[in-house]
Amino acid sequence: MASWSKLVRFTDLAGNIHFGEPTDDFSHAKVWEGISLFSLARTDRVERIAALLPPYQPDSILCIGLNYLDHAKECNRPIPSYPVLFYKPKLTVNGPFSDVVVPQHCKSLDYENELCVVMARDAKDVAESDAIDYILGYTVGNDVSSREWQQQERSGGQFSFAKSCDGFLPFGPAIVSARLVPDPQNLALVTRVNGEVVQDGSTCNMIFSVAKIISFLSQGTTIPAGALIMTGTPAGVAAFKTSPPVWLRNGDVVECAISGIGFIKNKMVTQ
Asked: What is any one GO biological process for this UniProt entry (predicted)?
């Protein structure tokens, strides 16, 4: 377990980058020195937060699709028997309050509010009963998706290309220590677009729990320390909310919040 309660990565007023434990209003942070999540040492130095960055740079980003009962139903897809895995590349990582720059080839832009898990240590062949012990903490992520590139005729039904553009994973603002989240299956997720609620769900509606996901993904394959696991999104995505769908447009602001974890807020900016 981490000795900090919440961890952010930020720039100070001089432009220097630090890890730190933030005050409640995220105006200042007590600095933790180190170059990675696993080399941090507490200091007594406090710095003013000029800008919040992604909490860290994960080398491995594992994503689970169709993991909420209500979302699978709105997609008119059968309930999966096993977790549906896809990946996002490292350059999708974006700040918790940064703009999401949308390439010209992405016209059907959608949001997906997701509970994200940060792994504390390597995990291989982990039993479901032990899986929670491998978690460093939790954070909030938006799996930004360009739906036309998920169509069968364009992608063969695969998810990754639609979700892999640079900056298509804003997350943060902090990693919340696992010890502060005793039950990851009892968290509320709310998404707003320009202030209007579009997703209102709960992790209790997951098909595969956080523990089951970790156990399944670790069978025969090492999930490395520091990996980020995105655990799926509830119903209410733009693709199935109206007919025809109202996609995200230039200037739209998406806020993804998870109870006990925090919120991120990002403006969509089309190229």
From this structure: oxaloacetate metabolic process
